[in-house]
Here is the input.
Amino acid sequence: MLTPAEVRATLPHRYPMLLVDRVLDLTEDHIRAVKAVTLNEPWYARLGEHPAPDELAYPDFLLIESWTQTAGILAKRLAGGTADGQVMLFGSMSGIEFHRRAFPGDTVEHHARLQRAVDDTMIFEGESTVGGEPLMTMGGITMAFRPGEALAPPSS
Here is the structure.
């Protein structure tokens, strides 16, 4: 288990884009984490006083981002000390299916599993649920670690 402070120390993301609240379980090839959806999030600020119910659906791209951050925590754990000085890059995603929408008040539970690892590149798969019901299925995402200095723009 990782506390919110440990999640924050693991990922480079900050408000408003840190989208993992807590890690419930972390093993060699699996992670289970949660994200609580609240009306306090900035993406809801643009809504009027009486939004339609469908306007309160949590944006799909943020569900993907939250799931990917969860997989990123597992990737950093798997990379261990070799991730120091490295930048984690998102490469591709495939086989994403949305089964329902998430709304404020829902607690999304993300499950990510290592599907395959080759050197510094990893492929993850998994799903997200709300109350045990399917929310999203992730067929696969690719993450890789690269040296930070190799990604910096050339100095002039």
